[in-house]
Each structure stands twice: as structure tokens, then as C-alpha cells.
């Protein structure tokens, strides 16, 4: 998908912040906030953007270093050889691509050595003259933590090697993990004590290794398996990775019994499939298969990036789906009053992440999937932030209750109305329905709008609950005493927040329009409005005719704009903003056109949109619609009963966007 350089710059920064945040939670706090799939998705998006715009690669990008920082308490140790990470293959195509790339480097048949990818904690272990001397966590790849006293509690790890001839030095890489049965027993015990349980064995293993008190690790019955040699006494040098693994076995070090040599691609894929099938029956958790070029000379020739070797890949398993019970349905109110049904599920664990809620999207989706309260449903987390309900298990249906859209808003009690021609319902009380007020203030303060640094969701929530503000304009009436009295606010944070509120008063016209939160007016449309009206007063007086003149503003968006400016409350808010000192900066020279040079094609029929609706939605984001598929087409929007364009798009490997994914897809464009 073509993305302008300036957009790419912004997106890259966003992705880096997000990925670094999750790295820290995963590696330093042992408390992952998202699934591996979601992480991998963001990571590959970043990599793709960086490959398209190499001069935008930033120093703090996770692709340039391995990630996690250390937490305090342990002695820091620098790795003699950095501990790298692995590149991922998320499907068979990725894996084949990896293999074919390898094949371009040699005439010989490539022999791959495969190992299960244990889901645990990476550790570097050093034996000197046969004695276990050090054990260091990966940390940021260069500096890790000395956790030797905890590692020594692992029963299967020899403190002294038992062999006639022993290398003077060897630095090895291993994974510390926990058996499923030990994990289940631990959680059972915690539950009986009414204490919080762990989400997955990895968290326990990582958590115990990073406890200062080694008695905790000793109680966990942790396991270890070796999968790499970073440094070896030259007298023991080998020519292949597999012979190194055999050597380690001879020294009595645990190496997986499932390791396997594949002589060609088919064989490697066959092994992957076998392991995937066996996965559930294994006594420990694995999340993929790691393939490594066996020949060490070839490994050296292939080399590595600063993050990962080019001779290895982690071919990950697809995320699992699981069945659980739908206990209830609640209804959430969004910024523009749209009511979204949310499934409240009997808590389940998918791929190590606890799931207890899932979006049901809208009433049509519920009807289509025939979902009722009390049903057993198949839930899937696959790259999506919010888990999805795939289907209902009708055969298990017993005493269920139909899901009905409430007549009144669950938050404010006002009437709920169905939006014409769409599957959505809306609470019409936009000026005094609390969730709507809160969301509109959150939007107003957000980075791309007024950019009020420090005014986060929870502060906004408290300010509204305590009736200190009733609309976004009231932000500018806040004084020191209003803020210092809030939970978690100190003198410094209060003063900083007041400063950023003051700073936000100088704002460009387009950001100001965007901040108002007019329905369907995203950043691009806000820019179009700002460049066409040149002043807020002119914008107030706009008519349908004026708006239709503006390129790509269609009837739905203009209706929303007119409705917005006819609402007295909105005008009062804007007047107040100006009164409180908001100073709009106008760019009088700029003339914008709204095209991003991205063209999309539509095929099939849609449940919630007419063709014109779709065109308008795309146009509002600066995207064009064309009739014919070509190599240059950015994506095909596919409804029911698609025509021949669908096959053509598949042949040309053009991105396919389904109706259910459309809104999420469009959100990516600003
Ligand atoms: S090799 C230079 N082999 O997965 C390559 N890693 O996602 C270093 N892991 O940091 C890694 N099983 O902690 C390798 N058989 C295996 C593995 C494995 C699990 C972990 C390891 C690594 C992470 C990368």
C-alpha cells in the first residue's frame, strides 16, 4: 500500500513507541499485554515501512536492537556475544520465502536443523573448565542480569560437567521453562488460597528467574533446554549445529529429543506439521518451530542483522481458537453515541492471554452468527486486538436468551435510535450522555487534535465524574485546585498539565476542526475544510451547497457537518473555546487537494452500505475508487457474491478488505 513519506514517518514513530512499550512489558515485567500474534503484526508492519523508507529508520527502533531493558536488583553483565532474537515466519509462504532465499546462496541442498520453539525465558550459560560459572538473562541483547543463583536451582542443569575431556570455555544459549503440569498445580494452589493465578507457564518461569530470592525459583521445578552455542573452546569446534547439539548431549546437558534434521523444504514442512499436531500432547508449551541452517560455514556466510541471524527463522503456530460460554451481553456507548454490543465471556486463556470480553460489532453480526446469551461460542485471537467470536456451537445450545438492543441508553437512559441504512444504533443524547462526553473530551485532547500532553483517559474520567468539566471547552477553565485534588496528581504533574493546557491554546485550524469530533470528519477532511474555509466564522455559516463544492465531501459528511453547526451546544462550546483564549492559526496560502493516489475497487453487495456510501467513506479519507483492477490497485473491497474482480485481485495478490474489516481498515488512514 503506497503511503506518503510524511505519513510513514508518523506511523513509524507510533509503532516504535507501541512496540517498545510491549517489549518492556514482555521482557522486563513478565507481564505481556498483547498476544504474540498482535506483537508480530505490529513488528512486521514496522519492518515493511522501514524497508520502504530506509532513511526513516530510527535509532530506538526495535528492529535495530533486541528490545527489553533490565529491571534493577541484579548485577548487570555484558554479553560477550550479543544475544540476538529470531525473525518470524507467520505462515507457510513466509517460510518458503525464507528457504528460497537461502537457496540462492548455495548450489547444495540446504540442510535445516529444526527445534521446537519453547515458550520460556532466554538465558546465556557459561561453563569454564566444566564448571557452571554464569547465567545471564537476555536483557536488551547486550546487557543482561546475573541470575546464576536462581538458575542453579534447576535440577536438570549440571553444576559440573561429567566427561573425560572438557572444553576450557563454552558459552551456550538455552531456554528456561515450566512443565504444564507444574503450572496447573501452582495455579490450583494459588486459587485455593484466593490469590491471583498466572496466565501462562512462561510468565511463571520468567518471573521466578527474576526474583532476588532464589528460594522461590527452587520451589517451581523449572526446566532448561539448550539450543545454541555462542562460543566454544576451539579444540571442540564442530562443523554443524547438529553436531554441537550432540556434543552438549554428551556433556549431560538437556537438549530436546524432538530436534530433527531436514534435508529439503518438503521434509521441513512435514516436520513442522507433525510438531504442530503433537503440540497439545507435549508436557510443555511451544509456540512454533525454529529452523536453523545446519552448516556453520554457511551460517557465517549468511550473517546476521543487528537483531537476528539470517540463517534461522521461527516458524510460529497459528493462534488457537477456543470454546467458551457467553454469559451476558453488555452495551458500550462510543464517542458519537454508537452502541456496540459486547460479549461477556466465561474467562478463558488463549495463547497465554486471558480473554473475558469480545466485541459483537453490531446487531446484524449477531443475527448473522445466530448468537444468544448462554450459548457456547468459538473465540479466536489472531492478530486482532479485540478477540472475535467466530461462531456459535448450536449443538450445545440449551436455555439461551435472545440478544436485544436496549430501547434506552445503558449510560444515560435516553432513547436509542437505529441509524438509517446501517446496522448501527445510536444514543441521541450526545450532549449529556457521560460516555459520549468523556470520549469526545479524550478525542479533543488527543495528540492529533489539541495535543494536551498529560490529560489522559483516567484524568478525564475523574474530571467528568467529579463534575469539574462537562464539555471539552471546560478544560480551559480548570485551575490548580481542580487538578491537585485528583487521585495520583501531585504538584509537579498538576503544574505540567496546566502548562500543556495553556500550550494547546495555539492550534492550527485543521487540528481545531478535527478536535471538534464531528462525525466522519477525520484528519484529511478536517484539512480540506480548513483550506477551503480559512476562518471559523465562515465555517459556521456553511451550507450544504458550499460543502458539496469541496472535493470529496459527499452528502453523508456534509449532513453531519450541517447537523453539527446547527446544534446550539456545539456553537456555545466553540465560542467558549475562543473566549478562553484558544487561538486558531490559519494557513491562508495553502490549497489542498484530497488525493492520496491510492485507488480501491469495489465488488459484490454489502449489508451495511450502498456503493455511494462506500465511495464517500473512502473519499473522506482521501482514497479514490476506480472500476478496474490493475497491478496498481491498492485494495479490493469485497462484499457478498463478488464478481470476477475478486479472482483477479487474488491472482495479482492485491489486498482484500472484507465488509466486517472495513471500518478498522479505514481507521488506518488519517
Ligand atoms: S535460537 C541467534 N532456538 O526464542 C538465535 N531460540 O524469539 C537465538 N527460543 O531469544 C535463538 N526455542 O529465547 C533459538 N530452539 C530455539 C529456541 C529459541 C526458543 C527463544 C529464544 C529466543 C527467542 C526468539
Overview of this protein structure:
The radius of gyration is 29 Å and the shape is globular. Helix 1 runs antiparallel to helix 2, helix 12 crosses helix 13 and helix 16 crosses helix 17. It is built from 24 helices and 24 strands. It has a five-stranded mixed beta sheet with strand order 2-11-10-3-9. With 670 residues, the chain is of the alpha+beta class. The protein folds into five domains: 60 residues, Helix hairpin bin (Helix Hairpins); 234 residues, DNA ligase/mRNA capping enzyme (D-amino Acid Aminotransferase, Chain A, domain 1, 2-Layer Sandwich); 87 residues, OB fold (Dihydrolipoamide Acetyltransferase, E2P) (Beta Barrel), CATH 2.40.50; 152 residues, DNA polymerase, domain 1 (Orthogonal Bundle), CATH 1.10.150.20; 68 residues, Rossmann fold (3-Layer(aba) Sandwich). Strand 17 and strand 18 form a beta hairpin. The chain starts with a helix and ends with a helix. The structure holds 2-(butylsulfanyl)adenosine (IVH). 2-(butylsulfanyl)adenosine binds next to strand 3, strand 7, strand 8 and strand 11.
